Amino acid sequence: MAANRKLLILPGDGIGPEVMRQARRVIEWLDEHRGLSFDVDEGLVGGAAYDATGTPLPDETLEAALASDAVLFGAVGGPKWEGLDFGLRPERALLGLRKELELFANLRPAVVFDALADASTLKRELVAGLDIVIVRELTGGIYFGEPRGIERLADGSRRGVNTEVYTTHEIQRVARVAFELARKRSGLVHSLDKANVLESSELWRQEVQALRDAEYADVELRHMYADNAAMQLVREPKQFDVIVTTNLFGDILSDCAAMLTGSLGMLPSASLGAPDGGGFSRGLYEPVHGTAPDIAGQDAANPLAEILSFAMLLRYSFGMADEADLVERAVEAVLEAGLRTADIMQPEMTRVSTSAMGDAVLRELDKLAA
Ligand code: NAD
Q: Are strands 268-275 and 105-111 parallel, antiparallel or unpaired?
């Protein structure tokens, strides 16, 4: 039952702990008002962990993550640790967690709240009501493929090599995540590749299609070349619902889709592993933004991306869609009421601090629950 869900909180560095404090208040609210007594643990990660233990991902943190049903992550890194060896950098912790938890699907929703439609660089009518999700393969493809490296040639010049490689298993497990998501949404998946020039993409296209035909005949599947998709994302983004693609194309296109919403401080994300018996995946949930060293410690950061990451956690790892809806509705109501942190400030709106934004979300939760 829900009562024993294990949640590990890793605030990290910079604004990480500040935005996490507000997410934690939402967790406590649900505990108090909905009787969801999560088993919450908190750990050290990133620069904070390096300072305390000499490593960005201490064994204790990794063990706690492996023992949890889901991890809510803040952000890691900052100027203080930039001179460290690559293997000791705070950001390594995130790669280590993704690898050890076997998180192979990265979900990036791009949702435009009506109240923020004018913050996008695209015209309001193109983005108002936008709600898409990009499923990016996270542990394969050209970022991991062998051979890789830089070699010296006989003539003294150099050659750099990376390898785009995918197997049936890697393609189908991430496509499955996309099809399952589509079933809960509008039933449409776009799969992006470069099957016109890459054999690995030809295989990608065949395997995604084969899985759809065998198990997801109720879902509509459209294939699109990734370069065309980049164009379509800024031309007519609402034609998409669920997009599934490779590590490389997903990396680039999810940033493109993120900017449709206009604000880094509003964007949640999830990295998921294989679904467990109950249909829900172990996952790591985090805002897309980093540690924002320029505003850290000023009570100025926008905590909504962290709070929305927690809503995703409720939906995808804990199977609590009603509670996820509730949290998302509270965020929407705060925006409708005109409250804005500095990053999303607009004329005639009320500027608030990180903690005041947290207060406002709790007030809206109280109203919605009344
Ligand atoms: P960043 O996302 O931290 O900041 C970019 C800009 O957006 C800054 O001006 C910042 O003030 C603003 N911003 C970001 N989040 C905000 C929020 N919630 N509210 C208000 N404004 C916000 O990216 P960066 O400056 O490129 O990186 C800073 C550090 O964060 C680096 O050490 C980087 O490695 C790290 N980083 C970590 C993660 C992660 O932990 N997943 C992701 C990206 C960057």
A: antiparallel
The pTM for the full model equals 0.93
How does pLDDT run along the chain (370 residues), one tens digit per residue? 445 799 999 999 999 999 999 999 999 999 999 988 899 999 999 999 999 999 999 999 999 999 999 999 999 999 999 999 988 999 999 989 998 999 999 999 999 999 999 888 899 999 999 999 999 999 999 998 999 999 999 999 999 999 999 999 999 999 999 999 999 899 999 999 999 999 999 999 999 999 999 999 999 999 999 999 999 999 999 999 999 999 999 999 998 998 898 788 999 999 999 877 666 788 999 999 999 999 999 999 999 999 999 999 999 999 999 999 999 999 999 999 999 999 999 999 999 999 999 999 999 999 999 8
Q: Does 17 contact ligand 1 (Cβ within 6 A)?
A: no
Residues 6+ apart with CB under 8 A from 114: 128, 129, 332, 336
In-domain check, residue 239: yes
Q: Which two tokens stand for residue 186?
A: 């509008």
- Whether residue 293 sits in one domain with residue 368: yes
**Per-residue CA distances from 155 to 149, 152, 158, 159, 250 (Å):** 18, 8, 9, 11, 37
Q: Is residue 35 part of a domain?
A: yes
Domain encompassing residue 213 = 131-259
Asked whether residue 126 is assigned to any structural domain, the reply reads no
Atom of ligand 1 nearest to the CA of 19: 18
Q: Is the CB of 75 under 6 A from ligand 1?
A: yes
CATH of the domain at 241: 3.40.718.10
Q: Are residues 321 and 351 in the same domain?
A: yes
- 136 and 248 in a single domain? The answer is yes
15 and 99 together in one domain: yes
**CB 77 near ligand 1, within 6 Å:** yes
Give the residue ranges of DSSP H helices in 185-246: 199-215, 226-235
Residue 289 Cα to ligand 1 midpoint, Å, equals: 5
